[in-house]
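Thread: Newbie trying to understand structure tokens

Hi all, I'm a second-year student working on a class project, and my supervisor (Dr. K.) asked me to get a predicted structure for one chain before our next meeting. I've only ever worked with sequences, so writing a 3D structure as a token string is new to me. If someone could post the tokens and maybe explain what I'm looking at, I'd be very grateful. Here's the chain:
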Amino acid sequence: METFHRALLMQSGISMAVIDAEGGILWASPSFLHYFSGAREKVIGEHLSGFIHPGAKEYLSYLMTEVLEGRRIRFSEEVAMARGNGGFVVGNLVGVAVSGFEGGPGLIALWQPDGSLTVGASDKSKKATLSEMGRRILEGVARGLSTAKLASQLHMSKNGISYHLGELMRQFQADNRTELVSKAYSVGLLKVGTWPPAT
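---
Reply by user tm_fold:
Sure, no problem. This is what the structure looks like when written as tokens:
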């Protein structure tokens, strides 16, 4: 990357990284470094997938391979990325194919974090603040249960279930059940096998 362009990106505040053909991080902006430990030596040279929540790592590795091998020009996916403190932050990761640097193909990774959704061992997280009822409703929604079925299983009224669902959607800033479950899964609130729901 040319020095002039690199200097502009350093001052822009954009959270981005340059990824080589093997998925390794060649360069990262200060904003990107801030989210993923702040130390260049802990980021540069590492594989981008190493910063992705285990629940989404395999799929994101697949998307990166698709871009790096020329089968698509970009991807955009909501994921949880690891922070330096051992927690995760949810956001949108965009990967765009580029060529002509470091002798081969690669991609630019743009990270747009949603600071309202964080989880982690050292954070007061969404996971920690979910009530037991909230967790049970969330798992039921992930299994594809209707409001009526949830009400029956949890011995609540349908209005009670709707109230708790509304609270969960506000907490996760989700517009519908699918987005709610996707966000909850991406930050590790749902067990492997709970999402997607069994057919």
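A couple of things are worth pointing out once you decode it. The two ends are 47 Å apart (CA to CA). The chain has eight helices and five strands. Feel free to ask follow-ups in this thread.
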